[in-house]
Amino acid sequence: MPAFIQITDTHILPEGELAYGRSDTAAALEAAVTSLNEKLALIGPVDCAIVTGDLTDYGTAQEYERFKAIIARLKLPYLAIPGNHDGREAMRAAFASEDWMPKTGPVQWARDFGPFTVIGLDTLLETAHYGHLSEEGFAFLDQALTEAGGKPVVIATHHPWMHSGIAAMDADNLRNGAALMERLEAYSGPVRMISGHVHRALTAQLGKVTCQIAPAPCHAVHLDQRVNAVNSLIMEPGGATLYTWHETPQPALVSNQLPIGSFAGPWPFAGMLDEPST
Questions:
Q1: Domain limits at 202?
Q2: Global confidence as pTM
């Protein structure tokens, strides 16, 4: 039963600094690692974690080293792609020893999970906050889709193509996402696209492509869809996303949002029913 956990938008800063002066992103990632490690015994084997961009806030070597030090406690291997807050070459240097990190060019990779394949794409355009998939990225995608041979694929990007209704975030989506969707629509098998960037859990069906955006362990983007709303962060509970392949009753990749933290319970439903009423 192949499975992976999506972690996104960790925004790690140097020690002592808060994102936007408010959000302790390192503490949030530490809590996420602790919470996910505790859940691993309950959810069964998980192959790896996939970090969908914005590992750091400014893309510095110091931030990547702090990210690595925190996530080293996670009892899973991990792969990553960059987001608009990352620096491609600093990220490449930090993860140069990892087998998923290419020596040159976009940070992109493909992993075969058996029943499905995950294709990680680099949408970082270092002069902008919005996303852009390069010609190298499209060529890599074309080859990976050919090799997948019609079995289900998951396309992992930092920038989404679906809209959230939060105007400022939607303005910084994947600008050439229409060209990506054309390729995914033409693929012979099922397609899902998983992204980050918006710090919220959202799902949309765009043609044949199921699109999901994952929550972040740290702050969320405030859900304010009013015209001329100020783009803001809000300290909602953090989360990660579990994707598990289930063979029955019909083969499918099932997603579960994993809230970060400790919560009261569990209490068996049967035991609760046995308690006398008052």
A1: 3-274
A2: 0.95
